[in-house]
Amino acid sequence: MVESKKAETDKMSIEDIPGVGEATAEKLRDSGYDDVMAIAVAAPKDLSEITGIGEGAIIKIIAAARKLADVGNYETGEEILNRRKNVLKLTTGSKNLDNLLGGGLETQTITEFFGEFGSGKTQIMHQIAVNATTSESDGGFNSDVLIIDTENTFRPERIVQMSRAKNLDSDEVLKRIHVARAFNSHHQILLAEKASQMAKDFNIRLLIVDSLTSHFRSEYMGRGSLSERQQLLNRHMHDLLRFGMLQNAVIAVTNQVAARPDVFFGDPTAPIGGNIVGHTATFRIYLRKGKAGKRIARLIDSPYLPEGETVIQLSEEGILDGI
Ligand code: GTP
Ligand code: MG
To answer: Greater confidence, 298 or 271?
Structure first.
């Protein structure tokens, strides 16, 4: 049902929204809102600020877009359970980490890996990209993969090594991994929005953003720009989640940690983006360095799985069990 609704709204143009004339449509488009569904689910205050259209007019436009896109209806528990029945799970390569996640990375959900530099976030992203291309009996989706690379750390050579370790044809695997380099946060947001166009040509069940927060962090420094940064991040996270729901895809994002000046005991670090990222990501995995390529992975704040830790091993062959 979600798929058919998507197809319907894709055919509509924003001029189909009652009350949206040429000038208003132009303002919406210039702000990146060229899609009825995106307007229907936008927050009035944000949309008013971003487009410069008065809040009163925006509230009416959003209400009309909601009616047109037929959103805002309640779903019964049964409908939600049925949607959940379509959830697929992707192996990380480590049985321990899969078990910690209740069987692997879930589709229709954002999973965040956070940790300091060198904690293995990018290695895990390479591994799950390879795994997604494998058959379902091998824990994959037999699908293509999108990677939004913000730090220029995608290495095809690692894909080749990891593919060979699994006896896969590395050329075939590389052909199925589509990488876009994001040059700044706006570009990153745009690439996430364009992901649905890629999904028309390819069967994509894994979308990776490595790293989710680096551009936002460097571009929006200081307290004055914090609320703008959080708003943009929030919108970006919701675009990603929407892609995951519509395509039944895994969304995997990485995040660094920042020092917390207010914490003097225990672990004085926290993921960047704070609550915005935390509330939208359903699974959060905290990675800490151990000895000789071992990494401790801790599941944090899961809605229905117990917190816990396990050990993984970074190796030339990829991500393996550490114990
Ligand atoms: P930042 O992006 O800087 O925040 O770090 P990250 O968490 O993405 O770290 P990344 O995944 O790049 O981890 C780098 C670590 O992976 C290195 O320090 C190595 O320990 C390990 N690693 C990477 N490639 C190999 C490899 O070919 N063999 C082995 N044994 N380890 C590797
Ligand atoms: Mg990295």
So the answer is: 298
Percent of the chain with pLDDT over 90: 63
Topology, domain 89-321: Rossmann fold (3.40.50)
Angle at 125 between CA 123 and CA 131, to 5 degrees: 105
Taking the centre of ligand 2 as the mean of its atom positions, its distance from the CA of residue 121, in whole angstroms, is: 5
What is the distance between the alpha carbons of residues 253 and 285, in angstroms, rounded to a whole number? 10
Mutate which of 112, 116, 117, 123 to test ligand 1's pocket (most atoms within 8 Å of Cβ)?
123
Residue at 165: amino acid letter: A
The arithmetic mean of pLDDT across residues 287-307, rounded, is 90
pTM score over 0.85? no
Which CATH number does 2-69 carry? Answer: 1.10.150.20
Q: Name the band, by pLDDT with cuts 50, 70 and 90, for residue 9.
A: low
Domain boundaries, the chain: 2-69, 89-321
* Euclidean distance between CA atoms 10 and 30, whole angstroms: 18
Count, residues in the chain: 323
Which residues are near ligand 1 (CB < 6 Å)? 115, 117-123, 153, 256, 293, 314-316
Q: By alpha-carbon position, which residue is closest to atom 20 of ligand 1?
A: 293
